[in-house]
């Protein structure tokens, strides 16, 4: 039969006492091995499981840490490196507080959340939050590495991409969308507004249904045209260096590909599209063959009209002169500034710089390219162009 042992006096059985300011004041042990020890040392009172340091606490429904005020805490500590880490009430009975190294005893403190044996999220000192698999909130798909997708059906499939808003898709690496119905599929592309598309490297689409047409470009929507059409403005920077008298297309500003302006979006069979380059500014500066630092700066205005799957026509200058693809624009130069009118600044092909306009069509789009040709053999000339283009689509 089991023996019932009372601590202190035998009676009353519900009022047993142990010594004050004593360690141990009471213990359960087997020989020299302690299992449960009560310490009543003033200011350090505790009851602890000892021996192997591993024990199971079994409760029917819950384990409660309770105190007469809202400072109750549950702490976990390493006995050889004491840190104030655990959980408790956050100064209010309705606030739960998680804390790590609350007394700032160490460095690199953090709160980690682990799922299936791996860290999923970490909160570090200073408040930064790291999520190893990206952030997915409110009916979003799985984001890409370090991606963030917030909003109904938002997607951030690109590496470190961000999608904020309903039906946004940041599929390009480092792409950003903020608004509704946006797409940023180009690397480092961004789209802001409603139903915009940034499909090229480092391009930016703003407004309503703006659609970038080339790499490193800016597309901004304008006022919709009468009859269900639309308009948008696009800007870009092109550059190239020629080292002889051969013809060369302007490149994108990073030199990765030819600068090509596409009408965008495409048109349906009932529509006509017109691309109007309101400003095409080109500046050419010589560093060889021509005198060093000789330059010529000039501007052009031209328009391309295209009907779906049909003929395309080009017009240039204030006189509305027709121009064919591959034709020289020199006769329509405006605002010419040069320090060498008879050399690099001459409008005559073979003497100065010759600028040509090229345009081509596909089923529902038209594209434009600009070429430059140095007038002197072995001439080293740097060319920089800024283009502001308007795309107008109408029935």
**Largest sheet, described in full?**
15 strands, mixed
Instruction: Determine the strand fraction and express it as a percent band.
Output: over 45%
Helix content estimate: under 10%
- Count of helical segments? 0
Shape: elongated
Q: In angstroms, what is the radius of gyration?
A: 37 Å
Q: For the record, give the distance between the C-alpha atoms at the N and C termini, rounded to a whole number.
A: 101 Å
On the 0-100 scale, what is the average pLDDT? 80
The secondary-structure class comes to mainly beta
Question: Overview of this structure, please?
Answer:
The chain is built from no helices and 31 strands. Among the domains are: 73 residues, 2 Solenoid (Alkaline Protease, subunit P, domain 1), CATH 2.150.10.10; 165 residues, no CATH class. It is mainly β and 395 residues long. 30% of the residues are buried.
Summed up:
The chain has 395 residues and is mainly β. Among the domains are: 135-207, Serralysin-like metalloprotease, C-terminal (Alkaline Protease, subunit P, domain 1); 230-394, no CATH class. The protein has strands at 26-30, 33-39, 46-49, 73-78, 81-89, 96-99, 110-115, 118-124, 129-131, 135-137, 148-150, 162-164, 176-180, 183-184, 190-194, 197-198, 204-208, 217-221, 230-242, 247-249, 251-252, 260-262, 272-288, 295-307, 312-316, 321-323, 327-328, 334-338, 354-361, 366-373, 380-394.
């Amino acid at each position: 039969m089991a023996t019932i042992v009372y601590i202190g006096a035998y009676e009353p059985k519900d009022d047993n006492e142990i010594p004050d300011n004593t360690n141990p004041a009471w213990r359960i042990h087997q020989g020299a091995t302690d299992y449960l020890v009560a310490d009543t040392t003033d200011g350090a009172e505790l009851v602890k499981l000892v021996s192997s340091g591993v024990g199971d606490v079994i409760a029917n429904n819950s384990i409660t840490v309770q105190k007469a005020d809202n400072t109750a805490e549950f702490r976990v500590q390493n006995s050889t490196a004491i840190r104030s880490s655990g959980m408790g009430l956050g100064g209010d009975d309705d606030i739960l507080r998680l804390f790590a190294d609350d007394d700032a005893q160490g460095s690199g403190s953090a709160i980690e959340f682990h799922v299936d044996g791996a860290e999923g999220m970490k909160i570090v000192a200073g408040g930064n939050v790291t999520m190893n698999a990206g952030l997915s909130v409110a009916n979003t798909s799985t984001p890409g590495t370090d991606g963030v997708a917030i909003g109904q059906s938002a997607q951030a499939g690109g590496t470190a991409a961000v999608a904020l808003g309903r039906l946004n898709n940041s599929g390009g690496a480092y792409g950003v969308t903020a608004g509704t119905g946006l797409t940023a599929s180009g690397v480092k592309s961004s789209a802001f507004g409603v139903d915009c598309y940034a499909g090229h490297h480092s391009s930016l689409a703003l407004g309503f249904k703006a659609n970038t047409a080339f790499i490193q470009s800016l597309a901004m929507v304008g006022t919709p045209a009468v009859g269900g059409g639309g308009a948008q403005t696009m800007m870009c920077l092109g550059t190239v260096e020629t080292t002889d008298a051969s013809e060369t297309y302007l490149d994108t500003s990073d030199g990765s590909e030819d600068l090509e302006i596409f009408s965008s979006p495409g048109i349906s069979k009932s529509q006509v599209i017109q691309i109007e380059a309101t400003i095409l500014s080109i500046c050419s500066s010589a560093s060889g063959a021509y005198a060093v630092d000789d330059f010529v700066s000039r501007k052009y205005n031209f328009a391309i009209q295209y009907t779906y799957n049909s003929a395309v026509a080009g017009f240039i200058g204030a006189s509305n002169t027709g121009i064919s693809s591959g034709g020289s624009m020199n006769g329509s130069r405006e605002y010419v500034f040069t320090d060498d009118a008879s050399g690099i600044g001459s409008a005559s092909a073979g003497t100065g710089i010759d600028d040509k306009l090229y345009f081509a069509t596909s089923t529902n789009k038209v594209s434009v390219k600009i070429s430059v040709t140095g007038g002197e053999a072995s001439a080293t000339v740097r060319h920089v162009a800024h283009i502001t283009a308007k795309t107008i689509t109408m029935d």
